Amino acid sequence: MWDEPTTGLDPVNTAAVERLIKRLSKELEVTSLLVTHDVEGGLDICDRVAMLDGGSLRFFGTPPEFRACPDPVVQAFVDRAAAEAALDMVTDTYV
Questions:
Q1: Rounded to the nearest 5°, which phi and psi values hold at 69?
Q2: Higher model confidence: residue 29 or residue 95?
Q3: How many CB atoms lie within 10 A of CB 86?
Q4: How far apart are CA 4 and CA 58, in angstroms?
Q5: What CATH number should be reported for the domain whose range is 2-89?
Q6: How high is the pLDDT of residue 9?
Q7: Any idea where the domains of the chain sit in the sequence?
Q8: Which of 11, 78, 79 lies closest to 43, judged by CA?
């Protein structure tokens, strides 16, 4: 079980941890459970995605199915992740 393994890491170390998770899962032939708020990172690592909403299972499927899911709550989550990823590419931000 991986509970927020990349929280607080810089992009280089985030990528290293993500590669480690993929490699260990493949080499050890084990199922891993990844808990994360990093949508894009999670979609890159996992072959199945589950989204909980209010304690109930809102979505379960593959990363492409998650991205294409018409459910408005799922889409809001996907769109927010895309917006945050774009914001991370901006060098000068003032909040």
A1: -60, 130
A2: 29
A3: 9
A4: 20
A5: 3.40.50.300
A6: 93
A7: 2-89
A8: 78
Q: Give pLDDT, residue 39.
A: 86
Q: What local confidence, expressed as pLDDT, does residue 93 receive?
A: 53
State the DSSP string of 7-69: TT--HHHHHHHHHHHHHHHHHHT----EE-S-HHHHHHH-SSEEEEETTEEEEEE-HHHHHH-
**pLDDT, tens digit, 9 for 90 and up, residues 24-75:** 999 999 999 999 988 888 999 999 999 988 888 999 999 999 999 999 888 8
CA-CA-CA-CA torsion for 45, 46, 52, 55, nearest 10 degrees? -100
- Which residue is associated with the tokens 């290293």? 16
Q: What is the CA radius of gyration of the chain?
A: 14
61 to 17, 28, 31, 34, 35: CA distances (angstroms): 23, 23, 15, 14, 15
Instruction: Give the pLDDT of residue 1.
Output: 93
